[in-house]
Amino acid sequence: MKHFTEEEKIKILSDIIAIKSVNENEIEVANYLKDLFAEYGIESKIVPVTNTRVNLVAEIGSGSPVIGISGHMDVVSPGDVSQWTSDPFTLTERDGKLNGDDRKNEVLDKLVMSTTIFNAGNQVNSVPEKAVAEINVRTIPEFDNDEVIDLFKTTANKYNQEGSKIDVEVTMSLPSVFTSGQSEMVDLAKELGKKHLGLEISVKGSPGVTDASNLLRDKDDNFPFMMFGPGETKMAHKTDEYVYKDYYFAFFNIYKELILELSK
Fold it and tell me: How far apart are the first and last CA of the chain?
């Protein structure tokens, strides 16, 4: 089994951060990882979604249990780069933290919603003839996608009856999912978190978008699934986003021990 040195681990992270895969250009990251896997005899394949958006699928071993590991290769825009302490696409170490881009939300009753893009008008002293807003909504099972879509359409219809012309278009609709959080995998992750990080790992839900919407389709509440990694949730998608260097290194051992133990 290959054991990466700390220098090699930093090099891999630095190389990936340097690839500007802002909501696109995943093909460069996929090619980098595919070449890296090939160096150690791991077969992988690139599955195109568009010309620049792709998935990378790698498999090791056969039989059961099957352990799936999912991550994303794109990043969100760093926004105003001048607000960053250092270049978001250059891995920089400061105070034990590794800084780089992996890069807001309002909590409205049961929803997490943010208007992330708004376009309107072309001059100050004129009412725009058209305005377009792109809105990101994170739902929960108790207030699902259909209810959210109905809320927007009902609101639009109300104002349309008063003379407005509002169109509602849904470009993506992935369901929220729920698991009990009780499984051998979660228990083992908590043990390894205590062992390698000295932390009591809590189990809680997340409003973030993950592959769970697809991976847990038609699965019951007890299907083992979790998000577990070294990132700081409070810094996700924010200026000067970082991960603690010690945590980054620790998770190499955590993932290795987690997968080997679950494979027994």
Answer: 17
